[in-house]
Amino acid sequence: MISCKPGVKANGMKPEILFAIMVADQIYSECGAECVITEITGGKHGHQSLHYVGYAVDLRTRHLTGEQAASIVSDLKSALTDEYDVILESNHIHIEFQPKWTD
Question: By CB neighbour count within 10 A (0-12 exposed, 13-18 middle, 19+ buried), where does 55 fall?
Fold first, then answer.
């Protein structure tokens, strides 16, 4: 089940991030954990953060063991295309959609 931290803003979220959230929910569920969204388009991030244009999401990890968080990150990297960056931060999992352009 997906839930959101109070105050999460989703206006402007891109379909690619909705897809990543759906994948993450399945992976969290397989670990026996709830998928909690902590930020989408709101919050404070770096100046050029993809959150501000709807191409990033942060997911809670404080209710996970270190092993669970690492496993979820690994599974997300396997399930999503290489157009997604999945990063285990100190207090959340950051997912962003950032196509890799080739010539």
Answer: buried
Tens-digit pLDDT profile for the chain (103 aa)? 899 999 999 999 999 999 999 999 999 999 999 999 999 998 888 888 999 899 999 999 999 999 999 999 999 999 999 999 999 999 999 999 997 765 5
pTM of the prediction? Answer: 0.92
Topology of domain 2-97 in CATH is Muramoyl-pentapeptide Carboxypeptidase; domain 2 (3.30.1380)
Q: Hey, where are the domains in the chain?
A: 2-97
